[in-house]
Design goal:
This protein has 599 residues and is an alpha/beta fold. The chain is built from 20 helices and 15 strands. It starts with a helix and ends in a 10-residue tail after the last helix. 40% of the residues are buried.
């Protein structure tokens, strides 16, 4: 079952309907309440539920706990919030006057375990008298797509890799572990844990996750039971495991659009017709986006045109000639309001593909070939490249190429050589005219375990043996495959190197309980509903891959590709946050001091 559906069911059943059943005065009679959220839970609610579903259960309005709100003293409020200082303060201030409270009463649901001191604060406040429900529902992650999650913790990059952040590292990792455990609990999984051993903090994080999972398992013994679920693995990686994928210019639709265009919070803005700006959310409610997001840009434009023609033929719409343009589409939308929704979808993807192509043809097309050669070590014909310098110098000297794009090329070059001399680095920086405030991005890369500047003491870095994937069908500018795809496929086929990706405490064996009993408390929400989904029985084992320091959109694509190719496995992929190349560079820039000066 898709992550969003799981979390949506959990919010509707364990928060909204649970309150209605326990507190409505008359069964079957609607009572109106307010739903109060904070930033993290708002992301969850908007990603996984619809306003009409909430209204049907008596939710009249959704409000944010940290903002000033209109008091509704005759109504009760359901608070779905993280137990953070700001959110709890907001809850308490709603009831800090005995006579004039914002709401009549509060039903409080925390997204995760509430710290002891915060719980005491609530008990000692005036709000305590008004709280009728106080529960923890354990969903401390955002389902981004059906198989993709984010912990919304971009700061993890800093406390994991920044030597100056050692003091708050442990608390940050503890929180990550709790969030990962709530994901596994929500999926009904108790996985074997594997981790990348080449970075020492991953073992510590794996142990923390195991502790949290054991606590969930004690509360819910059926978690992860059954012969298929016993095969499930959680693989903990850190961003240093593959520093190539987040640097490359990707040419599949979603990754390309998020890299090249200014898309904030999944909202794409474009000019629908003269002077009229339109905002669209790129998410799974748009079936055309779902179909196109992992396609190569060359296929996307053709597909949109073909589909539009087919739609026009089916609806007997006169289209103007062969090539549809944005202007034709906006005329059609005005002329046929009954087809507005479908035509608007075409118009969005036309604009998106067109804008991507326009940027690509500026100079990105030249970069892609050089980047792929650097990443692969070979050219499109499979010949080993002897002199990368010849290819990269013209790009570094080109005034049209942005500083960040030059830095991406320099970093890929350094990785292809497994480190370069101080003298060569200085030359590259001069050629590319990289300003002093950005040269640190290149140096800071060593915090992720990459050899940057080397003398005679080059650190040995283990390289995973890559699968051969390049074929006649491969686009020359898309030859690189994210390493996580190899890691996941090797894990499924039991070929993943046990020295570099060991199991924590060994691999789980299937226990004697082959079918888990139904939980009386939750009915069937965390089980696979056999009767409903017998055709594609959801009892497949899963690989849950988690990247501390952020997961890139090319890696997101890999999760769907492996799920499609390996019919009996489902891949759930995520990270402390989702990462574009620009954000990756910014994260590295903020790292500051180096772990040890190596020369």
């Amino acid at each position: 079952m898709a992550l969003k559906t799981l979390v949506g069911n959990r919010i509707m059943n364990d928060v909204i309907r649970a309150t209605v059943q326990a507190h409505n005065k008359q069964a079957g009679k609607l009572e109106w309440r307010v739903l109060v959220v904070d930033t993290l839970s708002m992301k969850m609610v908007s990603a996984c539920t619809k306003m009409h579903e909430l209204s049907a259960e008596g939710i009249t309005i959704v409000e944010t706990v940290t903002k000033k709100r209109e008091p509704m003293p005759a109504m009760e409020a359901i608070y779905l919030i993280t137990p953070s200082e700001d959110s709890v303060r907001g809850l308490m201030s709603d009831f800090n006057s005995q006579n004039r409270t914002t709401y009549k009463a509060a039903h409080v649901y925390f997204t995760e375990a509430c710290p002891e001191e915060r719980f005491k604060e609530i008990c000692n406040s005036l709000a305590a008298k008004r709280i009728k429900t106080l529960k923890e529902i354990n969903i401390a992650f955002t389902p981004y797509e059906s198989q993709i999650f984010s912990l919304d913790t971009p700061d993890a990059f800093q406390f994991y890799y920044n030597p100056q952040r050692a003091s708050d590292r442990s608390a940050g990792m503890e929180k990550l572990a709790e969030q990962i455990a709530t994901l596994c609990s929500c999926l009904g999984e108790y996985p074997s844990i594997r981790y990348r051993a080449d970075y020492e903090r991953n073992l510590e994080l794996a142990q923390m996750v195991q502790q949290k999972l054991d606590a969930y398992k004690a509360d819910e013994p059926t978690m992860g039971e059954g012969p298929e679920k016993a095969k499930t693995q959680l693989i903990i990686l850190d961003r240093g495991f593959d520093t190539t994928s987040p640097l490359l210019h990707e040419l599949t639709f979603q990754a390309m659009a998020f890299d090249l265009l200014d898309i904030q919070n999944d909202v794409y803005k474009y000019e629908a017709n003269e002077g009229v700006m339109k905002e669209v959310i790129l998410d799974e409610n748009d079936d055309l986006w779902v179909e196109l997001r992992h396609e190569h840009i060359a296929v996307v434009s053709q597909t949109v045109t073909k589909k539009l023609k087919k739609f026009n033929a089916e609806k007997r719409i006169q289209s103007t000639g062969d090539k549809s343009s944005m202007r034709d589409l906006s005329k059609m939308i005005k002329a046929m309001p009954q087809h507005q929704k479908e035509l608007a979808k075409f118009s969005t993807h036309f604009a998106l593909a067109e804008e991507c192509m326009k940027t690509y043809q500026g100079y990105i097309d030249k970069l892609c070939k050089v980047e792929q050669d650097l990443a692969m070590g070979t050219d499109a014909e499979g010949e080993k490249i002897k002199d990368h310098m010849r290819n990269i110098v013209p790009i570094l000297l080109d005034q049209n190429v942005t500083i960040n794009d030059k830095i991406r090329i320099i970093l890929l070059y350094i990785q292809s050589k497994n480190g370069i001399s101080e003298e060569n680095l200085t030359k590259l920086i001069q050629h590319a005219q990289i300003p002093p405030e950005k040269t640190c991005i290149i140096k800071n890369m060593q915090n992720l375990g990459v050899n940057v500047v080397v003398g005679s003491n080059r650190k040995k870095i283990w390289q995973m043996k890559r699968r051969e994937r390049v074929s006649e069908q491969t686009y020359q500018t898309s030859r690189w495959t994210p390493q996580v795809k190899d890691i996941i496929e090797d894990a499924i086929e039991d070929k993943l190197d046990n020295n570099h990706f060991p199991y924590l405490g060994g691999q789980r064996q299937a226990s004697s309980m082959s079918q888990a009993p139904t939980s009386a408390r939750y009915g069937q929400w965390h089980k696979d509903k056999k009767d409903q989904t017998s055709s594609q029985s959801r009892s497949h084992p899963r690989i849950i891959a988690f990247v501390v320091g952020g997961c890139s959109f090319s890696e997101v694509r890999a999760a769907y590709e492996v799920t499609r190719d390996k019919k009996n496995w489902e891949i759930v992929m995520g990270g402390s946050h989702l990462l574009t190349p620009e954000e990756f560079l910014e994260n590295i820039r903020e790292l500051g001091g180096s772990p040890q000066d190596e020369d």
